[in-house]
Amino acid sequence: MDEITKICKSLRQGANQLALHTANQKNQALKEVVISISKSKEAILAANKIDVEKAISVGTKESLVDRLRLTSERIDGIIDSINIIIEQADPVGQCVTGWTNPNGLRIVQKRVPLGVAAIIYESRPNVTADAFALAYKSGNSILLRGSSSALESNKAIVKAIKEGLEVAFKYNSGVPQAIELASSGNRDEVDAILNAVNLVDVVLPRGGSQLIKLVVEKARVPVIETGSGICHMFVDKTANINMACDIAENAKLQRAGVCNAIETLVVHKEILADFLPQLEERFKGRAILKCDEDSYKIVLDSASKQGRENCVEKATPEDFGYEFLDNILAIKTVDSINEAIDFINQHNTHHSETIITSCLENANLFQNKIDAACVYVNASTRFTDGGEFGFGAELGISTQKLHARGPMGLSVLTTTKYFINGEGQIR
To answer: Which residues contact 79 (CB under 8 A, 6 or more apart)?
Structure first.
């Protein structure tokens, strides 16, 4: 039997068991998983060290190594995320709506698990634990297929999760068959998952544009599409410049290799001379600034005073609409908010966009006309995150418009079923 088929059939059995578990049973199992991950911290860190050293040895850029790297604090963050999920309401069984027909039929629409979910993702090993916890709490089994760059880390985390579920199983709370890792590292695994019709109920890609495109184009099973993060920040002519510098620094430099970091800064022409020198001074050469024609000389003059001219480059058309995932920021000048909106809608991936403004009318216009899952006013795009939205964790950021959009929490892995009760009615 094909290995993926065998795994999926086991996961289906697990999903069928898990669908009957109460919220309390699922929470107890997740608590045992938390204990197990905590006990396994050193083993997980040791496994992650192998992945990180391998990534460095093949010349992986630092921003992507940072996505891969685990620390004691980051594992604590994983544990915190699972604890938040434990505290959240179980979506399974929630009544969406209900009514009684004139003929006496009682109709109730309730949330039920999807069944078997698969997630294909790159680098970040915290996704392994996040995706599992969200799937388990919402009553689903999950097949994890991470990248080969994080294989040792993922194996260690899944081992800890399964050990926790085995402990919970002893008192009828754990379903060890609810999680499996496709661990051969062979690309054939991806093809097998995408073609697992009637075995996998939904697949989620999480990673770069090439991975997402591959999954969307090749999948024969339902897909919830996530998107790469070409995010913009528009500095309106009414912006508070100090606020704009604070937000730009956070949105670009806190973690440059994540999908909710900004890649392009759009600036109103009227404030170029005031804003850009302050921005360049705030960045202090920590990022390459790729400037369009109107912004280049202003930024270069500021940088040259401090010997940072090597951090300023002329932008090419290809720099706009590109996900750098690095300490690189493109700068685009516009004459109006409408030009800014048109530019962003033309170049974005419908992920997260923000405007810095003191004008309520411009804020409302921006939020209503920008086509993105998350649109901010006077705040960093770095908040587009399941944890920051109060979900504990996320399956990814959905940039599509059907079923789910934005950070995906527990309810995304549920569908609805109609429960109809009668007393002998016929039509």
So the answer is: 34, 37, 38
